[in-house]
Amino acid sequence: MTICGSGGYTEPMKLHRLLLSLALLGLSIASHAQWQWLDKDGQKVFSDRAPPFDVPEKNIIKRPNAPAKPSAPTVAAAAEAQAPLASAPLRPSVSGVDKELEAKKKQLADAEAAKRRAAEDAITKARAENCAQAKQAKVQLDSGVRISRTNAKGEREFLDDTARSAEQKRIQSAIESECR
User: Fold this and answer.
1) Do residues 137 and 171 lie in contact, with contact meaning Cβ atoms separated by under 8 Å?
2) Residue 62: which region, alpha, beta or left (left: phi > 0; alpha: psi -120 to 50)?
3) What's the pLDDT score for residue 81?
């Protein structure tokens, strides 16, 4: 980019400004065309001035600072109004359902289902491990080998027949609940 010695803009910058000015001028001209009417040939006319006096009131479609009036009914519109309901599928149907919203809802539902499956799989895996450990403990208890434990004081204790029987019942209930 080169800058002129006098502090002015280069030619591309001037062209940019000119195009921007023309675009803004075009928008302002379009906004002043506030009148719209149908002429005697049925053609739409747009103007910033009122229509001539020979244009009937019913042909004026839009006035300045007034809401647009619907245009005169066309032959096609009249035929459509009289057509039976069977012709309705010709028009695109509007279901009132946002497809993007429905896709997001489906995606969320799929994600929740995947989370649920993962949680169920984790529970199933934990049950399988608990079942295997309970069966291992039952084999050890049923073998008749003396079993010792460490109590809260850190002392070693051997299970007597009463404690062994209680431990067998506890392990059997664990097997029944975890090994299904």
Assistant:
1) yes
2) beta
3) 52
